[in-house]
């Protein structure tokens, strides 16, 4: 297993190369990200009786909504707390919302459902976090941190800058983080480690240039 850590710019460059140059569809990468997170959830020792996925409308949210669907299909009790306007979601995340609706996954709007969950999946922000967190996004993160539930973050604990480990106002304190392709530089800092918990690096088919050249 490679122990290399990458920056936000590298993550975005490798993602774009995989999708645009190699041709692996973004939804395939999203499904692999979701499956890796789902498997890490099932392999851990969590109370799965009341699961809430907290998702925003970027691709990190799409990963989380796909995880919600995998859990629902498995027969588990899962709800989605959606932040932001679904009409401005990324195309992949819109597709995940459509699939989640097919499976009638409840969408909740009451922060108390987060506080009373037994497991929370944090899919608010990943490497796309770009500014200070305020308003309803901050309220949701504070509710996640106030809950007794275990918390699993997707890619990056929301609120952590994946380059510096800085908290952009407020950040999720996770018990574990499934991070995609490579670890992120910011998660190796003291603050990054405190917020990530146990880090699982998931191979989802995105590789750095040197590994790609090796395989050709
Ligand atoms: N693009 C890809 O190839 C892949 C992306 N993946 C996932 O997608 C994530 C990156 O997705 P995105 O680039 O869509 O970015 P994110 O989903 O991390 O966040 C971007 C969204 O958050 C908003 N935002 C940023 N800071 C905010 C703030 N402080 N308050 C409110 N809104 C804020 C942006 O306007 C944008 O809508 C990764 O971390 C990973 O989880 C994975 O699915 C693997 C493949
Ligand atoms: K996240």
TrEMBL record:
Cofactor note: Binds 1 potassium ion per subunit.
Domain of life: Bacteria
Keyword NAD: yes
Group of enzyme by EC: isomerase
One Pfam family cited in the UniProt record for this chain: YjeF_N
PANTHER family recorded: NAD(P)H-HYDRATE EPIMERASE
Family stated for the protein in its record: Belongs to the NnrE/AIBP family.
Protein name as annotated: NAD(P)H-hydrate epimerase
Organism: Levilactobacillus fujinensis
Name of encoding gene: nnrE
